[in-house]
Amino acid sequence: MRRRCALAAIVIAAAMPFAARGQRAGGFxxxxxxxxxxxxxxxAWHKAFRQGMRELGWVEGSNLAIEMxxxxxxxxxxxxxxxELLSLKVDLMVAEVTEASEAARRATSTVPIVMVAVGxxxxxxxxxxxxxxxxxxxxxxxxxxxxIGKRLQxxxxxxxxxxxxxxxxxxxxxxSASNWRELQTSAAHLGLRLKSLEARNDVELRKVFDAGLESxxxxxxxxxxxxxVTNLARIAGFAAKNRLxxxxxxxxxxxxxxxxxxxxxxxxxxxxxxxxxxxxxxGAKPADLPVEQPTKFELAxxxxxxxxxGLAVPPLLLAQADExxx
Length: 326
Hints:
- It is a single chain.
- The chain is α/β, with parallel strands linked by helices.
- It folds into two domains: 27-143 and 266-295, Rossmann fold (3-Layer(aba) Sandwich); 146-265 and 298-325, Response regulator (Rossmann fold, 3-Layer(aba) Sandwich), CATH 3.40.50.
- It contains 13 helices and twelve strands.
- Helix 2 packs across helix 11 and helix 3 crosses helix 4.
- The longest helix is centred in the N-terminal third of the chain and has 25 residues, at 2-26.
- The N and C termini lie far apart (81 Å).
């Protein structure tokens, strides 16, 4: 009897690591979300993420707990928020856009990280390659620099006589900076001159709003950056005050009063991110999951803003629009 008990104990002990993994995969998961935006700015994306998790069987309060941390547009807070999430012993961290993903990568090399809507993850050193990320991080990129030229073309369609474009960007944000570099190339191809409007923080952004613009500037291009996302309504107001056609990569800009928005469907990226979270919780390694690119794009046009600026929206843009705000 003692011999059978001893053998049984050995079998149970040997099976425990596998049982623990099975319990984690099918049991309770504790994840952290590192967000550089405010709760209001990111609400639609988080709803899409939660819906994606529910569709895969993960329900908050039942088998899932989600810890949310928001930097409210202040990137300097991200390292502390990442450390705070890790102190809670989360099983996995979801990091949004480039700045949060960089903070998460610096904070841990062991806890799995699913990044969402980052710029160029290879150039930024987040992953070794898109096909084989390596390390503890993978996810979804929105790095499609060719969309920059398309946005400029849309501004040119709206304002055929356009010669000068003001570009609002954050030099301290790696994704914003890469957009600025590509923007210069695209503008040169279209025969457009750029005026750089740099804003690293809210103080500098206020200075941009208070400064005057040359009369030749006819449009505003807004580059990606959490600081700018958290100030979409103010930026739209700045464009309206200066009677500028304006464009950003998120549809929320047009909803806030901007003229145009064109870029990847961010809610779709967050919904798809849930599938990677699910796979990793069930045992997949981030190193083996390729970084995926956007598959859905959206164009939003604000007709009210166009009318206020005295601009006629070309039928071609209206025909392509996914959202028309009247």
